[in-house]
Design a protein that fits this description.
The chain is built from 2 helices and 4 strands. By secondary structure, it is of the alpha+beta class.
């Protein structure tokens, strides 16, 4: 298993409860592909550099995961379909 760092930008209209549900949903998808969530935290709420679907602000989440080699492709597919996730970036940790 390899270690990955993932930055998410989610919709800013999520309240605390909905944000926690979104974080739990992300963790469930990771475990679905036999990965482990080391850490997933709220990072900050910021104005975006450019609008995404007419949304000008986003909530940033930062996560660290251990994943099998093929899992990042599968996770990318699932996260692209999630309506609350505006953008994400998966980086392999050395």
């Amino acid at each position: 298993m390899r270690r990955y760092e993932v930055m998410f930008i989610v919709k800013p209209d999520l309240d605390d409860g909905a944000l926690q549900e979104q974080m739990d949903k992300i963790k469930k998808v990771v475990s679905k592909y036999k990965g482990e969530t080391e850490e997933l935290n709220f990072w900050q709420r910021r104005e975006l550099a450019y609008p995404i679907n007419k949304i000008k602000e986003g909530i940033y989440l930062l996560g660290y995961f251990k994943l099998p080699e093929q899992a990042p492709q599968e996770l990318s597919r699932e996260w692209r379909l999630d309506g609350n996730i505006l953008r994400f970036l998966i980086l392999k940790k050395e």
